[in-house]
Structures are given as structure tokens and as C-alpha cells.
Amino acid sequence: MTTTIPMPQLGESVVEGTIGKWHVREGQAVKQYDVLLDVTTDKVDTEITAPATGTVLRILVSEGETVHVGTPIAILGEADEAMEAPPTPAVTAPTTPSPSTGAAAARLSPVVARMAAEHQLDVSQIPGTGLGAV
Fold first, then answer.
1. Rounded distance, CA 3 to CA 99, Å?
2. How confident is the model at residue 124 (pLDDT cuts 50, 70, 90)?
3. Rounded-to-integer distance, Cα 38 and Cα 19, Å
4. Strand, helix or coil at 118?
5. At CA 38, angle to CA 36 and CA 44, rounded to 5?
6. What is the domain partition of the chain in residue ranges?
7. Which has the closest alpha carbon to 23: 2, 4, 49, 3?
8. What are residue 130's phi and psi, to 5 degrees?
9. Nearest to 22 by CA among 69, 55, 56
10. Residues 24-36: what's their mean pLDDT?
11. Is 0.85 surpassed by the pTM of this model?
């Protein structure tokens, strides 16, 4: 039996989250409570754990994509289980403008990434002022 893993609601007013890093890959066996991925929101960064023991049959949302709460992000099941066509995740916004890649872009919050994309800003050209800024 398959288990669809939705984007969790990580706060009362949180409506979307960005996939930070997948700690598993398709076809990998996991145990209940193993860390599957990191999710970033404008309020919290957290690790999402497996709700059951099984095999990661399909990862539906790539790293860096932002999706609404409740959107299916992965499917767990038995290793020999056949998969139907996966649901299409609703991607809400690009995480960064395309010229902004690398370590600096990876540290953007979803809100900053969305604003940079909306205003077509190259964040690599904006000097940082926060902790660790050079």
C-alpha cells in the first residue's frame, strides 16, 4: 500500500514551503521516523521524517521548488509496488532568478527568493548584511 507524503503545515499561518534538501533517493528503503528531507518556510526550517517504513517510490518535488501545504511531495510504498501516474505538484514560485546560483542562493528564505524572482533581481549582485556577510 502506498503512502503519499504531503507538504506539511509547519505553522499556523504557513501556506507553502520550499524543498531544501532530499536526504533520500528514489528506490531507497527507509524506516519510520528516518529523515526524508529539509523544508524551509518563511518562519521555520525543519526536517521531515518518514511517516511509515517502506521504500521511496517517487520524489514528486525537486529541491528548491516551493509548493503549497498539502501538495504531495513524495510517495512511499513496497519496493515491488507498481506506481500509477504521479499527481502533478503545484509549484508556486521559482526560488531564485536563474543568474543566482551557488552557496549564496541556497541561503535565501522563500520570501526573499520570491521577491527576487518577482522583481527580476540577481541576488548575487546584492551585498549581504546579515550574519557572515562579507
1. 37
2. confident
3. 6
4. helix
5. 140
6. 3-81, 94-125
7. 49
8. -85, -170
9. 56
10. 95
11. no
For residues 73-88, one letter each, b for 16 or more C-beta atoms within 10 angstroms of the residue's C-beta and e for the rest, the string is: bbbbbeeeeeeeeeee
Which whole-number Å values give the CA distances from 70 to 9, 66, 82, 127, 131, in the listed order?
A: 7, 12, 23, 35, 33
Q: Give the per-residue pLDDT at 95.
A: 44
Q: Identify the CA nearest to 122 among candidates 108, 131, 130.
A: 108
Convert 83-115 into a string of H (helix), E (strand) and C (coil).
CCCCCCCCEEECCCCCCCCCHHHHCCCHHHHHH
* pLDDT at residue 128 tops 70: yes
CATH number for the domain running over 3-81: 2.40.50.100
What distance in Å separates the CA atoms of residue 25 and residue 10, rounded to the nearest whole number? 23
Lookup: cell for 57: 517510490
Answer whether 61's CB lies under 8 Å from 78's CB. Answer: no
Q: Report yes or no: 30 and 1 within 8 Å, Cβ to Cβ.
A: no
Alpha-carbon gap, residue 126 to 64, rounded angstroms: 20
